[in-house]
Amino acid sequence: MRLSLDRSSSSANTLGVAGDNPEHQFHLHSATTLPANLQLNWTTRYVHDVPFSHADRYLTADLRLAWKPDDHLEIALSGHNLLDARHREFDPELIDSKPTEIQRSFHLTLYRHF
Fold first, then answer.
1. Structural domain total, the chain
2. Which of 111, 100, 114 is nearest to 39 (CA)?
3. Position 100 in a domain
4. R_g of the chain, CA atoms, integer Å
5. Percentage of residues in the chain with pLDDT exceeding 90?
6. What sign does the dihedral 13-19-25-27 (CA atoms) show?
7. In a domain, 14, yes or no
8. Calpha distance 99→88 (Å, rounded)
9. Is residue 5 part of a domain?
């Protein structure tokens, strides 16, 4: 059986979406325990262009530093999407919704375990 896709078609079927994945992508993650009850976690991701979703390639990094002074308390500072102010991950054509853009963000969290 042979299938072919007519790119000029305006049909909203999902045949064109099935192969719409990035050609290249990678994900690196590191979790390190440091002295003084500190933990450092970082993640780096690269995603190549996704044509159908109109998402350009991007490289991003996340970082988390946590301090756990005892077994019941943890304070953490996290930064997400640190390499750009924002990047697009998804721009749907088949459904009526807004493009998904991930913005740089920072979070301070306090965990109290009972």
1. 1
2. 111
3. yes
4. 20
5. 46
6. positive
7. no
8. 7
9. no
d(CA 33, CA 21): 35
- What's the mean pLDDT in 68-97? 84
pLDDT in tens, 21-72: 777 788 999 999 999 999 999 999 998 877 666 677 888 999 999 999 999 9
CA neighbor of 45 nearest in space, from 68, 61, 21, 63: 61
Rounded to whole angstroms, the Cα distance separating 14 from 30 reads 37
Residue 43 near residue 57 (C-beta atoms within 8 A): no
Query: Which pairing describes strands 58-70 and 105-112: parallel, antiparallel, or unpaired?
Result: unpaired
| Domain span at 72 | 19-112
Is 46 a domain residue? yes
- pTM, two decimals, is 0.69
Strand partners, 101: 88
C-alpha 57/C-alpha 112 separation (Å) is 39
